[in-house]
Every structure is written in structure tokens, then in C-alpha cells.
Design brief:
225 residues; alpha/beta; Rossmann fold; seven-stranded mixed β-sheet; RNA_MeTrfase_FtsJ_dom; transferase; rRNA processing; SAM-dependent_MTases_sf; S-adenosyl-L-methionine
């Protein structure tokens, strides 16, 4: 899809007790072509197209692969993973986790649990039943409005996701995580480069132009430390 800066706003939201920021968010949703496309295509979020775009280029979601989806709600990434690894047909496996409840997705097993709960990693490993080929993380901390604080909180989630990936990925595995502009912390980036053969940042077209999000793609896991 070519959003060409999206399209001119056609839907205007009346105040009706809403704050300016609430109106802006609702107008953006109502006029976002990816939101409309997600509804038509049966995906639970516009984020499905971010993963689709990244995988169309990197091609790591192949039939039979075992995938972990951290921060799975509302389920868009898990839907794409199921479709591409063909887990609903019994060829691969998709395991997800989120602090929010996620309605069932055929072909995926998603547990309702905070990933930062000390029991979460063991529970995920139990469901995997072995090593994973791909660890996905679309997790982000709730925003406070203070950019530095939001960046640090989200990076803490990325670091936790990376630590989990080191434990569960099979050699050659892939780690994809959302980060915020301001750059991946130098220490984490250095660590990822030691553990993967290739590490890069990606800004998919499906990300809103005014969003500070980037995606960190690390491929070719060298093996457990």
C-alpha cells in the first residue's frame, strides 16, 4: 500500500466531551488507510502490515517455523505468523503472551500473563517444547508524555525480550523488536551484534510517519551463550 502521507482527512470528530488529544487520535484512526484495510482483511490491528512488510523483505516466517510473539495483543502479529508458518495446518507453532487477554486465534497458543512476571519465561518455554526460530516483540511501555522516560521504559522491555531470545532461539534464529527513535541503547546494540550475524533498524511504510517507532531486526543467532 502506498499511503503517500496517508490521505487527506475526510472524517472530522466533534468534541462531545472529548479532549483535543482524544479527538486527534480518533480522527487519525478513522482516516488511517491501514486501519480500514485491517478491518477488510480480517486482521485485529494495523500492526499486521508492519510485520508483513518486514517479513516480505527478510523472509524469516517460513512454513514449519516456531515463533514466539511477546506483547501479542490484540493479535495482529500472531495472525500473520500463523498464516506464514502454517501452524493452523500443523506445520509450525506460534506461542504468544500478553498482559491483556487476547481472544483465541486458530493456530496460536496465547497466554494471559505479564511477560515481566518471573514465571513467564518458563511458561513460554514449556509451551514451546523446544527451541524457537523467531522471537517477535511488539511490546512498548504505556506512554507518559515524557519522551526520555518513555524511551527508557520501552528499552527496558526490549532488553528483557532480547535476554529471553538468547535463551530460547535455535542457532540461525531471528529477533524482531519495536524500539523508539533516539536509538537503540549502545550496550544492547553491541550485545546483539555479538549474538547475531546481522543487526539493523527498519522503519516500515505501515508505521505512521509521525510515529517515533522503529523495528530492530537481528538475524543469524550465533547460538546460546
Amino acid at each position: 500500500m502506498n499511503d503517500r502521507g496517508a490521505r487527506d482527512l475526510k472524517v472530522r470528530v466533534r468534541a462531545q466531551g472529548r479532549t483535543a488529544s482524544q479527538r486527534a487520535w480518533l480522527e487519525r484512526q478513522l482516516n488511517d488507510p491501514y486501519v480500514a484495510k485491517a478491518r477488510r482483511d480480517g486482521y485485529r490491528s494495523r500492526a499486521a502490515y508492519k510485520l508483513t512488510e518486514i517479513d516480505d523483505k527478510a523472509k524469516f516466517l517460513k512454513p514449519g517455523k516456531i515463533v514466539v510473539d511477546l506483547g501479542a495483543a490484540p493479535g495482529g502479529w500472531s495472525q500473520i505468523a500463523v498464516k506464514r508458518v502454517k501452524s493452523e495446518e500443523g506445520n509450525g507453532k506460534v506461542v504468544g503472551i500478553d498482559i491483556l487477554e487476547v481472544p483465541p486465534i486458530p493456530g496460536a497458543t496465547i497466554i494471559h500473563l505479564d511477560f515481566l512476571d518471573e514465571a513467564a519465561p518458563a511458561r513460554l518455554e514449556e509451551l514451546l517444547g523446544g527451541k524457537a526460530d523467531v522471537v517477535l516483540s511488539d511490546m512498548a511501555a504505556n506512554t507518559t508524555g515524557h519522551k526520555r522516560t518513555d524511551h527508557l521504559r520501552t528499552m527496558a522491555l526490549v532488553e528483557a525480550a532480547a535476554a529471553f531470545a538468547y535463551e530460547v532461539l535455535a542457532p540461525g534464529g531471528v529477533f524482531l523488536a519495536k524500539v523508539l527513535q533516539g536509538g537503540t541503547e549502545a550496550q544492547l546494540l553491541s550485545e546483539l551484534k555479538r549474538n547475531f550475524t546481522n543487526v539493523k533498524h527498519i522503519k516500515p511504510q505501515a508505521s505512521r510517519a509521525d510515529s517515533s517507532e522503529l523495528y530492530l531486526l537481528a538475524t543469524g543467532f550465533r547460538g546460546a551463550r
